[in-house]
Amino acid sequence: MKKTLVAFVAAILCVATSAFAQEGQPLNALTPQEKDLGFELLFDGTALSPEIWQSSIEGYPVKDGYFVCEKGGNLMTKKKYSDFILRFEFKEPEDANNWGNNGCGIRATAPNLDAAYNGMELQIIADDVANKIAPWQAHGSIYGIVPAKQGAQKPRGEWNYEEVIAIGPFIKVIVNGQLIVDADITNAKPIHDAQHPGLHNKEGFVGFLGHSDPVQFRNVRILSLAK
Predict the structure, then answer these.
(1) pLDDT of the residue at 115
(2) Can you say whether the dihedral through the CA atoms of 196, 88, 44, 156 is positive or negative?
(3) What pTM was estimated for this model as a whole?
(4) Residue 200, exposed/middle/buried by CB under 10 A (0-12, 13-18, 19+)?
């Protein structure tokens, strides 16, 4: 109980400073504040390190300080995380005919399995296609479980800032300073016709789940709250 309380307080402090972290964020580097908190930098702007990442590294080539989904596939950390704060920026393609479909996988059982079912997938997709998909498929939603609020994204072609906070069953998703998911999944059940055996995993891999849509990513860092 004490560890949980400490982790929760740490998360609240990080949420309070997330706007500062966005505004003063050096490109693909940690702020002094993030260094003090113990964040890990997962991408330095030059390469996706095989010491940090596994599975479909070749599906996400690095270009001009960001990596972009081309071939797609699961790009997952080699390290497992349980309670954490994940921060990253993403940019949806300017082509309005491209849905910019990707995903942020968390607590995934294995790097090559579908994290939407063997963990959790927090959907990444352009806001302007929300009227063409189910609410539980819209950006930020816990896929198949919890729909997210919409309208937080910037126009296509601009960088969006996202923060994911996972502490036990409590999942928060913040986009450009707006809280779009604030869920307790303790008793959550699928709201579509599929099973999610990994929904309540205590820990697992974290990463991105591409479908070849050219979504771009940068400034990826994570703070483990597990002690």
Answers:
(1) 96
(2) positive
(3) 0.91
(4) middle
